């Protein structure tokens, strides 16, 4: 009985950390007193402690305490015993690297599959898919594998960006990058724009937020999915 | 006696493939009749044949023939016997993956260190650095290692982009990504804007083109390097 929120970003432009999600999180984590925070992705390279404080401050406004996974002696047990889990954004390569180094990927999958409520933002959302091959992040470290949780049967491209009209930059658009992915991989990819999130209820996945999301399947034209709808293919 | 051109991009906005570099390439590859082309990076997933044709068409205007490495029976020998080598852009992960799979990385390094004239653009430039950890590309395949040629003693960030003023997008800027790299890595990184290239003459590296380039060193403020100057740190 999965119960997950998989968000494109922690922060939408012009509002504070997690602010746009707090009403949703209040319901989602109803009854949870202490949340386990996984700070491994270290945005801008900040320390685990500083990152955990950021999460703690946001969740204090809905009366939920936050403790970082690094504050526990045994990371696996921390995951097994947790009432709820939040993996923050940052660098997906380093996040996945640390999940492997701390040998917690399979434990995390187990508790999420069994219903421990979860929040992922950005890198913390990328890891919910089959693998991390659609991250936008820079490969600053070499993880032992790109395989991730596979709690949903497709991949996430967080912070999805539409091609910028009139841009003179010659770097690949996001759509081109995902098309290149499909030359080598079969998995579907969902481009989640900032402000969008997925709500996973057992095996059902719903698109939430105001925006549409862009679904890329191998050998098919990409399509826009409506908010509120079930994601099926 | 290295002799390399390491370009940020193959194409600048508003001109055709390699057009802005052709006068330089005419001198650089002076005396070369046939260039060996490495099409492994497959931009937009195009075939090796199609990609080689693109390179062939551009070089025909300066009377140089082009043959793809995939057209040779033995890739290592093709590299050893070549008069000049061009590695095109595309996806750096797949490029590095194929360099390892075809076991040609060390051979390529050897001939470049010994003076076979080289052109790299974009992904083909990223591989000239110590490792590919500053690519902007999507990790669509998992290469056996991120270690690359190390023909220059630093890393390249091709298609370097300055932060976009007034952007509402919450994804990391290029500068933030490189700062995250320096939390885990010591290597200096040169942000090469589109239209810039490096000229490597033995151990000397000069910045060419009209623009400045941005040098990032660990625990230092980034600085702008002037075109024409020697790159030292």
From TrEMBL, chains A, B:
It holds the Pfam family Peptidase_S51. It comes from Polaribacter sejongensis. Keywords: Hydrolase, Protease, Serine protease. The keyword Cytoplasm does not apply. InterPro entries: Class_I_gatase-like, Peptidase_S51. Belongs to the peptidase S51 family. This is Dipeptidase E. The keyword Transmembrane helix does not apply.
């Amino acid at each position: 009985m999965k119960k997950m929120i998989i968000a494109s970003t922690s922060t939408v432009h012009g509002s504070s950390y997690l602010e746009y999600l707090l009403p949703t999180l209040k319901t989602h984590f109803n009854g949870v007193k202490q949340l386990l925070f996984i700070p491994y992705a270290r945005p801008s390279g900040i320390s685990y402690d500083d990152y955990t404080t950021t999460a703690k401050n946001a969740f204090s406004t809905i009366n939920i305490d936050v403790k970082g996974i690094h504050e526990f002696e045994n990371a696996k047990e921390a995951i097994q015993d947790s009432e709820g889990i939040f993996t923050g954004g940052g660098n997906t390569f380093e996040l996945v690297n640390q999940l492997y180094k701390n040998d917690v990927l399979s434990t995390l999958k187990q508790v999420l599959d069994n219903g421990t409520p979860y929040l992922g933002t950005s890198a913390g959302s990328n890891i919910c898919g089959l693998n991390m091959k659609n991250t936008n992040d820079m490969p600053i470290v070499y993880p032992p594998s790109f395989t991730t949780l596979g709690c949903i049967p497709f991949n996430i491209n967080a912070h999805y960006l539409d091609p910028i009209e009139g841009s003179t930059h010659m770097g690949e658009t996001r759509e081109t990058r995902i098309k290149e992915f499909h030359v080598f991989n079969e998995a579907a990819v969902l481009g989640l724009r900032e402000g969008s999130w997925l709500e996973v209820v057992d095996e059902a996945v719903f698109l939430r937020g105001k925006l549409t999301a862009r679904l890329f399947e191998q050998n098919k034209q990409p399509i826009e999915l409506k908010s509120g709808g079930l994601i099926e293919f």
